[in-house]
Write a structure and sequence with these properties.
The complex is a heterodimer of chains A (about 750) and B (about 140). In chain A, a hairpin with a 2-residue loop joins strand 26 and strand 27. In chain A, helix 10 runs parallel beside helix 18 and helix 14 runs parallel beside helix 15. Chain A starts with a strand and ends in a 9-residue tail after the last helix. A 7-stranded mixed β-sheet of chain A has the order 5-7-3-15-12-13-14. A 5-stranded mixed β-sheet of chain A has the order 9-19-18-17-10, sandwiched between helices. Chain A folds into 4 domains: about 200 residues, Aldehyde Oxidoreductase, domain 4, CATH 3.30.365; about 170 residues, Alpha-Beta Complex (Aldehyde Oxidoreductase, domain 3); about 140 residues, Aldehyde oxidase/xanthine dehydrogenase, molybdopterin binding domain (Aldehyde Oxidoreductase, domain 4, 2-Layer Sandwich), CATH 3.30.365.10; about 220 residues, Aldehyde oxidase/xanthine dehydrogenase, molybdopterin binding domain (Aldehyde Oxidoreductase, domain 4, 2-Layer Sandwich), CATH 3.30.365.10. Chain A is globular, with a radius of gyration of 27 Å. By secondary structure, chain A is of the alpha+beta class. Chain B has about 140 residues and is an alpha+beta fold. A 5-stranded mixed β-sheet of chain B has the order 2-1-5-3-4, with helices on one face. In chain B, helix 2 packs across helix 5. At the A-B interface, helix 1 and helix 17 of A face helix 2, helix 3, helix 4 and helix 5 of B.
Chain lengths: ~750, ~140
């Protein structure tokens, strides 16, 4: 039964208080640990078609008569279109239509960054559309350019009001501390660079707009497009069955969708608008750069008494200011905390959510600072973390927290320190570092699923969610099959179509499995209950003694043992329809994910080359649904983290604001040759307060602690304090030089 | 122009300057070959020409003399099952290119070492980070 509640909703660390209609969640959780299917290894149900190249991505959609779009982008970091004339462009071969500023959402007269979209041309081929762009006559009025986030802060150019937070008395606690450590940390812009670029194909069929789009949120695109075009939501159908990566950059529709919809309307033909790889590197969003000044004060026994910081998010022209101060507020027990966070509005490409936005950056600074504190206190970094273990989130109890168990799992990897350091030579220094992780990932209501059982004993889960490559389709099938008591291959999952299923949440914020999973289990339980009702009548027995195990209907007294398909044969064309909704999150509790990573590195002190040799990860994300898929997620997060820690560097011309690294040759993402040994473990304990599953999300946690763990391993190896990402060779050599000048004591391997 | 793809001969009409990737995808409907960067940096568009891994997005269709093999021609290759078994796929956009590169590798060297795999597969970028699984899939492709 549905009921109305007032609750706090969290997405990517952003909270809002909302009214929510939620379903009751009366199912008790399954017992802890691996079950028949859930918690064990399963290969992906859609792996064969993805591997064989049969999966149809948005990039593969070819509709009859489809036109292609090229987007005119500002070459200036800040300018206004004074005059635009499409006459010559429209006369070129194949060109069908053009849009100027204001003619589709996202095409603006004022361009706030180099790469901002201002106009678009549709033609029979993409090459023709591109050629037409060169023929568009455009005059610009140059406007003042601000590229330096610190200048923006000084001038109070913000994307949103600054966020101030305080508990206790930070100043007084700092004054009373035995030891104080301060640090300034910088992180750079990181690009998502999903393999499939941002794109949409739009076509009008009667009064319905079909949108094929590479997106993390089909329902969100449906609502945003319907709102912008003044249409009812059910007149917009959004389809994304297979999706080529997003990592947070594809949570909304953006200009390419509105451009394709408008051009399709004007031309009466389907229209594709797809970003090129170079546009992807300039205009599709990024993890913003940060500047962070942190202070920690501690007693000589290691008790942290004061934590504070000023955090500047260089947001760019648009985007939001993520909670970079989150780890400083939440990771450790500390009574006196004070933070301020500014979101600098500057003339650079927009911020978009990127895999744990804010917390990746804020964990780098905090966890480096904690290690510097440990060094000063001459305390084991892991022991220092244990001594400052937080039992609540600023007074709010955790729904579950097993970080201590993660530390226990990590202990054996941490104990390799002496052995690893002993491998050091004159030039190659080896060391071990660690960092902890805290992040959201509890998901929330609403999300819904339907299950259809047919006379052949097969089941179809129907839900308007999406699988962006994380394996959520398979996770849902596992949950349904476990609850139904049938083999996995009896369950199909239909997803990725807003017109063909009930609402499901977005695939971001590590929220899909914890949000949709409980709805799928509830739907399966509903379907199973109906099946057992039929079985009770068919076999003239009591419903309560019946169950389904491995596809067989059985009774506790042993009188019934019939394959499910034999029972369901009597359905004929009748179907059993189960439905389920996601229940509420526990009230008055913080639902968070935790983990720790231990990294082994080798540093060439002559050249500054850094090799990550081994990463051991232990994460607590509640119940594990697919053990194989979970390990893949952790590995992927770690590898992506190695990229932004060591090699990925987006360069911008500091004078003009133009992006200099626009290709995958210049922007260096990890290859298979850059991958270390990765060991991954889970606590795998259901969160007893969270839904009928006790599962949290896992997409983001593994990328959170990695950069800090690498930096701490570098300090262990060389004594050098790294305060900047990426840790290029130049940065490494600078840090080594600074360490030499400081003549640090206690640097274990360099001495 | 004439082109042999996956054992079949095709006569196609394509303007000079058309890339092999574009011809395969748009003229022949072989969309298993993906275009992710369209400038030869990522490997998603990898096909084989006479068994040699080739970046089809920077290969002019008219310059192709040999026999082209795309992912559609490798759908029965044991590597497919090896990739599925090892979970060597997340979003799957780079995966067909990975399989085409790997098929060329194991054809030349049926028992590659981990180092050889890392060397020969380094031109195929996977943003989801399935690399350890790809390595495992290729190491055990005949199992």
């Amino acid at each position: 039964m549905a009921r109305l509640i007032r609750t706090e909703k969290e997405v990517e660390g952003r909270f809002e208080e909302v009214w929510l209609v939620v379903e009751e969640d009366p199912l008790t959780q399954w017992p802890a640990g691996p079950l028949t299917l859930v918690g064990r290894d399963a290969t992906r149900q859609d792996a064969p078609e993805r591997v064989r190249g049969e999966a149809r991505f948005t990039a593969d959609i070819q509709l009859p008569g489809m036109l292609h779009t090229a987007v005119l982008r500002s070459p200036h970091a800040h300018a206004r279109v004074q005059r635009i004339d499409f006459t010559k462009a429209l006369a070129l071969p194949g060109v069908r239509a053009a849009l100027g500023p204001g003619e589709a959402k996202g095409l603006e007269e004022e361009a706030g960054f180099a790469g901002a979209p201002v106009a678009a041309v549709a033609a029979d081929t993409f090459e023709q559309a591109q050629a037409a762009l060169a023929a568009v006559e455009i005059e610009w009025e140059q406007l003042e350019v601000v590229l330096d986030p610190e200048e923006a802060v000084a001038r109070e150019l913000f994307t949103a009001p600054s966020a101030r937070y305080a508990r206790g008395d930070f100043e007084r606690a700092l004054a009373e501390a035995d030891v104080v450590v301060e640090g300034t940390y910088r992180t750079s812009v990181v690009l998502h660079n999903s393999m499939e670029t941002h794109q949409a194909v739009c076509e009008w069929v009667g009064e319905t707009l079909n949108v094929y789009i590479s997106t993390q949120y089909i329902w969100g695109v449906r609502d945003a497009v319907a709102k912008e075009l003044g249409m009812p939501g059910d007149k917009v159908r959004v389809v994304c069955e297979y999706m080529g990566g997003g990592f947070g950059s594809k949570n909304g529709p953006d200009e390419y969708t509105f451009v394709a919809a408008e051009l399709a309307k004007r031309t009466g033909r389907p229209v594709r608008c797809a970003l090129t790889r170079r546009e992807e590197n300039t205009a599709a969003g990024n993890r913003n750069a940060t500047l962070q000044r942190l202070t920690v004060g501690a007693k000589s026994d290691g008790t942290i008494v004061a934590l504070g910081g000023e955090f500047v998010n260089a947001v760019g022209w648009s985007g939001w200011s993520a909670m970079t101060e989150g780890p400083t507020q939440m990771l450790y027990a500390c009574e006196n905390v004070r933070t301020v966070r500014h979101g600098a509005k500057i003339n650079t490409p927009p911020m978009k959510a990127f895999r744990a936005p804010g917390f990746v950056e804020g964990t780098f600074s905090l966890e480096c600072l904690i290690d510097e504190l440990a060094e000063k206190l001459e305390l084991d970094p892991l022991e220092l973390r244990r001594r400052n273990y937080a039992d609540s989130n600023d007074g709010t109890p955790f729904s579950s927290k097993n970080l201590m168990q993660c530390y226990e799992l990590a202990q054996k990897h941490w104990d390799r320190r002496d052995e690893v350091r002993a491998r050091s030579t004159d030039t190659w220094k080896h060391g071990v570092g660690m960092a902890s992780q805290i992040w959201f990932g509890g998901g929330g209501p609403p999300s819904y699923a339907w299950i259809r059982a047919t006379s052949d004993g097969r089941f179809t889960v129907v839900t308007a969610m999406q699988d962006i490559g994380t394996g959520t389709r398979t996770a849902m099938a596992l949950i349904a099959a476990e609850e139904l008591g049938v083999p996995l291959d009896r369950v199909e999952v239909v997803l990725g179509d807003s017109a063909r299923g009930p609402y499901a949440t977005l695939s971001a914020g590590s929220s899909t499995t914890p949000s949709v999973g409980p709805a799928v289990r509830a739907a399966a339980a509903d379907a199973k209950r109906q099946i057992l009702e039929i079985a009770a009548q068919r076999y003239d027995t009591e419903e309560r003694v019946l169950d389904i195990k491995d596809g067989i209907v059985i009774s506790a007294d042993g009188n019934v043992s019939t394959p499910l398909e034999s029972l369901l044969e009597i359905l004929g064309d009748a179907q059993i329809l189960g439905k389920g909704g996601r229940g509420p999150n526990p009230t008055g509790m913080s639902v968070l994910t935790f983990g720790v990573q231990v990294v082994e590195v080798a540093v060439d002190v002559e050249t500054g080359e850094i090799r990550v040799e081994r990463v051991a990860a232990a994460h607590d994300v509640g119940r594990i649904i697919n053990a194989l898929g979970a390990r893949s997620q952790v590995e992927g997060g770690i590898i992506q983290g190695i990229g932004h820690t060591l090699s990925e560097q987006r360069l911008m011309d500091p004078e003009t604001g133009r992006i200099l690294t626009t290709t995958l040759d210049a922007y260096r993402m990890p290859t298979i040759a850059d991958v270390p040994e990765i060991v991954c473990e889970f606590v795998d304990a259901p969160d007893e307060h969270l839904t009928n599953l006790g599962s949290k999300g896992l997409g983001e946690p593994p990328i959170v602690p990695l950069a800090a763990a690498i930096a701490n391993a570098i300090r262990d190896a060389t004594g050098a304090d790294v305060h900047e990402l990426p840790i290029s060779r130049e940065e490494m050599l600078r840090a080594l030089d600074a360490a030499k000048k400081k003549e640090k004591r206690g640097a274990p391997a360099a001495v | 122009m004439k082109l042999t793809v996956n054992g079949g001969e095709h006569v196609v009409d394509a303007p000079v300057g058309t890339s092999l990737a574009s011809l395969l995808r748009n003229e022949l409907g072989l969309t298993g070959t993906k275009i992710a960067c369209n400038e030869g940096h990522c490997g998603a568009c990898t096909v084989q020409i006479d068994g040699v891994p080739t970046l089809s997005c920077i290969t002019l269709a008219h310059s192709v003399r040999g026999e082209v093999t795309t992912i559609e021609g490798l759908r029965d290759h044991p590597l497919i099952e090896a990739f599925v078994r090892a979970d060597a796929v997340q979003c799957g956009f780079c995966t067909p290119g990975q399989v085409v590169s790997a098929a060329a590798l194991v054809a030349a060297n049926p028992a590659p070492t981990a180092d050889e795999i890392r060397h020969r597969m380094a031109g195929n970028i996977c943003r989801c980070g399935t690399y350890p699984r790809i390595e495992e899939a290729i190491l055990h492709w005949r199992d």
